[in-house]
## 1
Amino acid sequence: MQVPERWYNIIPDLPLPLPPPIDPPDSDSSSIELLNRILPAEVVRQQFSIERWTNIPEEIRKAYENFGRPTPLLRAKRLEERLNTRSKIYFKYEGALPTGSHKLNAAIPQAFYAKREGIEEVVTETGAGQWGAAVSLAAGTVGIKSTVFMVRSSYEQKRQRRGLMEIYGAKVIPSPSSVTNFGRSISGESPGSLGIAMSEAIEYALQNGSKYLVGSVLDVVLMYQSVIGLESISQFREIDELPDTLIGCVGGGSNFAGFTYPFIGSKIAEKFVAVGPSEIPKFTSGTYKYDYPDTAGILPLIKMITLGAKFEPPPIYSGGLRYHGVAPTLSMLIKQGTVVTKEYGEEKSAEAARLFAETQGIVPALESSHAVAAVIDEVKEADKSGTSKVIAFNMSGHGLLELDNYIKLYGER
């Protein structure tokens, strides 16, 4: 099969109109207009598009192909055998991409559009490092510089990911940092958060004339990630199989949405399960309201499930899941009941990852291990009810660059 020719945008297929981003009521300037200053112009245009389909430029499709798309859809037969189940388990393996995760799908088009505008440097934030690595590679591929503000706890925990970014040519800065005014305003003892790093990256972009590349939450990023689900539908049809249940982990929502939204829009599958960490309990304790995507409150307010932009998450190893909010479209689908949610602690997720590695040979990213834990529970529930299901999940990345953290987790048992 080939790389999809179009991205899918779920907004026309949502059950209700999506609440628009708004400026803070006490603001003297337009934070929405700010997007035009910090994002590539084409990214802004696509962010506010309500078209169901957007053509993927040929240069971007070629880059996708060069870096390994389509990624494989694999059946976890040995895991099925270990669980002694009649259900079938499939996974879309985004860890096959060179940076080890799905994030490259959104970095490539944004870097391409920035280059087309004549931009010389792009900047972003990263939690666990997958997004930062993707931006570093994408920027280097098109010949522009990259700067990455990496959440301090991950900067210290995930040296291999930091090293990968630097190999690709990025300047990596631990956040909170002394580089920005907002970073200097945060306590030096803070482990950091995605919201803080995001604020620093945006301030840096405004100060230096760079363009900010966004890694999750915004509609345009979820659209770029739709290549995952579109490929998966074609791959399932090639084997004359369709899934009953789809599962993915959620930080901001990009890998879950990229995998499931084409299925939701096509009305394929019956159950969609979003999985988060119990240490950052957005699903069980979050509120559906307008909130800032970033901690400093620079960006427009968006309506989402949130723990609050000032929430400081604990420094769990699953750095990509430490974001305080959930993408607006996914928040709506959760509130409307289209998507159900589960939360798991890092210890249980790490044990699920060990079982997956023992049976399938692939070490999941710590973020993806939460989805594996949910898959195992779904299988057990199906077996208990005497049914068999076809369950598919998005293996959003591999864990080969965080083996030190797995060793620490297993040692902490």
## 2
Amino acid sequence: MAIDERFIEMATRRTLLGALVAGLVAPRLAFAQPARVASVVVLFAGESEHDEPAAQSFFDEMRRLGWVEGTNVTYERLEGRGEREYVEGLARSAAGRTPDLIYATTTSTALAVVKQTASIPVVFTSAADPVAAGLVASLARPGGNATGAFQSLPDATQVRFELIREIYPDLKRFGLLLDRRSPDSSQQETTHQLAARRVGLDLMTMKFTNFEAVAKIFANLRRAGIVAVGLTSSYTLIARRREIVDTALRNRLALIGHRSEWAAVGALMTYGADVAEALRRSARIADRILKGVKPAAIPVERATKTELVVNQRTAKTLGVTVPSSVLRRADRLIE
């Protein structure tokens, strides 16, 4: 049977075209790589089992933004164990892992990291003013490899003192626990002195350098007739908050904090920026950096929501009656 030459020519063309396409596609399939998994090192001030639940809003927001642990992002958690002397080694260890991003949960850990590396992006959630602490050049223009969110509200200290006067209407003297080694220690002292003066309180400021001094300070405050003590921003204090609260309660001292983690472990009351909001803001900044934006181009964000938390269980333990005027304004009551 005669074969049509035009059919042979068309078949030959199809074969050649198929071979050409296969030759182009096959190498791409052979060398195709899965999407790269982003690596994030998370630095906790204390033990991760205690600090991670407090930072859960960061991880929840990252997941909402599409960063699923074990799928397209890995988190390596490093803990500071509550020892300030350990921070430098913690930062060195984080930088040595050369991750895509380092998330620092405190000002001190963030400062330690930027001293170790100027290239790895650092995102922080800070209770201190990051400019006063020397972490960034300005809020609008961080100027380096670090940016994030902070929880310092301009009137929060004044409001805390007003709330204290409502709970203790006859209070004349109020204790303040201040960490000399906090990056913004001087600013904190000035802010609290001015706020105390406005509400007519005599402020008894007790400064410490090492955690071991806190127990003695609490005993001295109690002997001096102090019944309530304010807590300032401090790596040492927040990292060892459970021990701080236990020691204060043994001395019958009511602690007043600036972030809700304190009320969660037994402080009488906390008032300040909503920590969960600051954590979510930090996560959104981390998302932008992991997608290619430079930290220096991302302004530092300030949490704008406030949160008042009252621990009624602690009030009962101390025999303190929290007035209804305070309870009605509380965002959360711990029974």
## 3
Amino acid sequence: MRDQHESKTKLLDATLKVVRAKGYSATRIEDVCAEAGLTKGSFFHHFKSKEDLALAAVAHWDAHGSQIFATAPYHDAGNPLSRLIAYIEFRKAILTGELPDFTCFAGTIIQEAYQTHPDVSAACERNISSHAKTLEADVRAAMRDHGIRGTWTPESLALHIQAVIQGGFILAKAKGSAAVAAESLDHLRRYVELLFGTGRTRRWNRTPSKKH
């Protein structure tokens, strides 16, 4: 049983690596098996098809990411806005290694498969949206702390943060460097600071003061 569990994990880890390097459409079962150092017989012992593998790999990616972010240092910041800023800085800090090492498995699949593989794409969307949701409580608390009441919601800002991150990955692939993604995160930090700070955006969104 242990060997079966280990071989399945090897196939899932290999899928994350190969798809982030080659894309979902170009990834073959043979590529995953070669990366994992296993046979196709072992593959079909665990998975019925490439799509079955992809769905399991999304769940594997979600579990792996949840563990990393649950213990990340940005949670230690002293107030909600500081935690949001620290989250952005953490995302910048983990732009390390080669492009396939830091780009998003779920985002990579959605870019290719949102029409052709709806079940896999939907699983990836749930992964990205559920991660965005982990930021909503701090956004909501920061809005309360800073007297912000605008037409936007904690959910919309949390998703916008993810949109910038995913867009940064695309630019990094286009430019062949993490530097452009890091610059996008610097802009994101400035935007969030302006949104909650003393700039013009805050004046537009601040809760009107009561007249005495």
